[in-house]
Amino acid sequence: MTRAVFLGTGMAVPDRVVTNDDLASLMDTSDEWIRTRTGISERRWVREGETGVSLALRASRAALEMAALAPADIDAIVYATSTPDHFAPGGGVYLQDQLGTGPVPALDVRAQCSGFIYALSVADAWIRAGSYRRILVVGSEVQSTGMDLSTEGRHTAVIFADGAGAAVLGPTDDDSRGIIGFDIHSEGAQAEHLWVDAPGSMYHPRISAKHIEEGRHFLQMDGKEVFRHAVVRMPESVRAVLAARGLTPADIGLLIPHQANLRISEMVQKSLGLSQDQVYNNIMRYGNTTSATIPIALDECVRSGRVKQGDLLVFTAFGSGFTWGSALVRW
Fold this sequence. Notes:
33% of the residues lie in helices and 23% in strands. The chain is an alpha/beta fold and 331 residues long.
C-alpha cells in the first residue's frame, strides 16, 4: 500500500526577537512571571510588511531544497493557518502564486493549533488515494498583529508568536517508512474558551467600532480551561494513535508536541512516562506559533540529526475549537 513520506522540511521565523523584558515595558509583567507560567524566554514577531505568506514562502523553499525538488514538482498545497493575511482568499493561493508552482490546487485548513496535523491528514489521504504525488504542507502564522499589548491582554500577548514551517510529502511503497496513522478530534462546545469573536460574517457589519472598543477583535483565552483539557486530550490521543498499531509510549523515538506552553508539554511527558530524550521542546525560543510549532520543531530536529531513519515519531496538538489530534510517523 502506498504511504506518504517526508521528502524535505523547512522553517522560517522573523528576525525580530521580542524578549520578556521587552514585553515588561509594555504591560504589567516580568521575565520571571512569563517564564514561570509558560516557559518562554523570547519569541519572534514580524516587522511591518512581513506576512504569513512571506514566512511560508521561505519555509517552503527550504523544504523544497532539502527534497531536491523545484516548485514545478509540487502537485498540491495544503496550507494551515488561523491568521490568514486576508479574510478571503486564504493564504494557500498566494503561496502558490509566489512560489511559482503553476495552477495546482491550494487548500487552506482552519484547525488552529491542530492545523498542521489536520493538514498532514489531508495530504496523506490524497497521496494514498493516488490523487497527487508531491504535496507541500505548510503551517504559517502571524499572531503578533492580533495581540492586545496591554496588561489586560498579557495572558495571550506573552505566549503567541509568528513563524512558519513546511514539509514536502511524497509516495512510497516501503511499508517500513512514512505516515502510519492519525487520531483527530474536535469539541465545538468548548470553542469560546479560545477564540477571536470578530470580524465575523454573523455580524452586520462584520466589524464595528463597538467590537474594537470591547476588544473582541483580539484573541481571547481562558487559560485554565485550555490547560485542563490539553493535558488530558494530548496524551489520550497519543495513546490512541499508538494503540491502534499495537504500540505503546515506550516505543516512541521522539514526541514533538504542539508548543502551547512548556508546562503543558511537561505534563504530557509525565502522563506518558517519557524521558527528556523522547520529547522535543523549543517554545522557550519561539513562543506559541499555533499551526507552525510542530513543523518548525520537526525541521530543527531533522537538520540537527535528532531524527534518524527508522525512528518512530509522534506529533500531537491541542488548540482552539477545541481541536486536537496526533500523527504517527516512521521516519
